[in-house]
């Protein structure tokens, strides 16, 4: 089992669920992800997310007619200190296809992982066990496996 302190100095890629837990105050994992975002804000680690994360986060507020919240996510999250968002490139698409070809990953999950790998990040933080891959080229950490 990993500890939050082990993320210090790391270059971590964040899956959408990490943002969702923080933004929605998840009862089980909310405190843990808030600590992770505090560490990112303080520069203890560098974080990265694929632009797909923004699209996934905006869906719920848009469905609920909360357009302002969706717009706030799109404009404010990319300004979060020590957090970088990256677009999909052709190299990312090709890497995602290779990941899908060697696993049962869905396209969006493969694109998330491929974007992180292409960017040179070392840890992909998620809580989605479907993202486990035998050899993706990045360490995949499950939030549920991290101690406070």
Verbal overview:
This protein is α/β, with parallel strands linked by helices and 148 residues long. It has six helices and seven strands, in the order E-E-H-H-E-H-H-E-H-H-E-E-E. It has helices spanning 16-24, 30-41, 52-63, 67-76, 90-101, 107-119, and strands spanning 2-3, 11-14, 46-50, 83-86, 123-126, 139-142, 146-147. The strands form two sheets. The chain has a five-stranded parallel beta sheet. Helix 1 (16-24) packs across helix 2. The longest helix is centred in the C-terminal third of the chain and has 13 residues, at 107-119. The mean pLDDT is 91.
Tags for this entry?
single chain; about 150 residues; alpha/beta; five-stranded parallel beta sheet; 6 helices; about 45% helix
**N→C terminal distance:** 11 Å
- The proportion of residues in beta strands is 15-25%
Quaternary organization: single chain
- The side-by-side strand order for the widest beta sheet comes to 4-3-2-5-6
Radius of gyration from the alpha-carbon trace, in angstroms: 15 Å
Class by alpha and beta content: alpha/beta
Compute the average pLDDT. 91
List the helices and strands and how they pair.
Layout: E1 2-3, E2 11-14, H1 16-24, H2 30-41, E3 46-50, H3 52-63, H4 67-76, E4 83-86, H5 90-101, H6 107-119, E5 123-126, E6 139-142, E7 146-147
Parallel strand pairs: 1-7, 2-3, 2-5, 3-4, 5-6
Helix pairs in contact: 1-2, 3-4, 5-6
Short description:
With 148 residues, this protein is of the alpha/beta class.
């Amino acid at each position: 089992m990993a500890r939050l302190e082990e993320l210090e100095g790391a270059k971590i890629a964040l899956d959408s669920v990490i943002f969702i837990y923080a933004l929605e105050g998840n009862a089980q994992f909310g405190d843990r992800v808030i600590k992770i975002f505090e560490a990112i804000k303080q520069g203890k680690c560098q974080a990265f997310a694929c632009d797909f994360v923004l699209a996934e986060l905006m869906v719920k507020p848009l469905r609920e007619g909360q357009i302002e919240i969706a717009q706030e996510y799109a404009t404010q999250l990319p300004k979060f200190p020590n957090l970088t968002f990256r677009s999909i490139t052709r190299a990312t698409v090709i890497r995602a296809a290779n990941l899908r070809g060697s696993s049962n990953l869905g396209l969006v999950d493969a694109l998330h992982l491929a974007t992180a790998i292409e960017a040179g990040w070392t840890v992909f933080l998620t809580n989605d066990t479907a993202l486990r891959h035998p050899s993706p080229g990045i360490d995949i950490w499950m939030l549920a496996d991290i101690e406070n």
